[in-house]
Specification:
It is a single chain. The protein has 129 residues and is of the alpha/beta class. It has one domain: 2-enoyl-CoA Hydratase, Chain A, domain 1, CATH 3.90.226.10. 19% of the residues lie in helices and 24% in strands. It has three helices and seven strands, in the order ββαβαββββα. The strands form three sheets. It has a three-stranded parallel beta sheet, with helices on both faces. The chain has a two-stranded antiparallel sheet with strand order 1-2. Strands 5-6 form a two-stranded antiparallel sheet. It is flat, with a radius of gyration of 18 Å. The relative contact order is 0.19.
Length: 129
């Protein structure tokens, strides 16, 4: 995707120019867990190797793939993996995506978001001016 003036090129006429972020390159905390799969893993992988980014939680499921359905002549449907996800360095990911900071979820606990929030709060770029 190409970005022009803060807006994806394909939406430039509809959306207009985007406003620059108030704080460029803010820190980003990505949360993962045992229900993070497929497209969720693709999002987490998209942030891999980005400066100022950390992942928190538990390992993801381990299916960072793109799948496509193919109908068969007898009416059955087979879903085949057609692509694997790669991060910004080109590294292709296989199996469970492990977070940078592993935080076990306790029943009825907010430990994962709390840990990520504490990490974010330690950055000047996350504080109000």
């Amino acid at each position: 995707m190409t970005i022009e003036s803060g807006t994806p090129r394909q939406y430039a006429e509809r959306w207009g120019s985007g406003e620059p972020p108030a704080r460029p390159m803010p820190p980003v905390a990505v949360l993962t867990g045992p229900r993070t799969a497929s497209a969720g893993e693709a999002v987490a992988i998209a942030f891999r190797e980005r400066p100022g980014t950390r992942t928190f939680g538990e390992p993801a499921v381990g299916v960072p793939t793109a799948d496509a359905p193919y109908p068969l002549p007898d009416g059955a449907l087979v879903v085949l993996t057609t692509a694997r996800e790669a991060d910004r360095t080109g590294r292709v990911h296989h199996g469970p995506l492990r977070p940078d900071v592993e935080v076990e979820r306790a029943r009825d606990s907010d430990r994962v978001p709390a840990t990520a929030t504490d990490w974010l709060a330690a950055h000047d770029r996350c504080r109000s001016p």
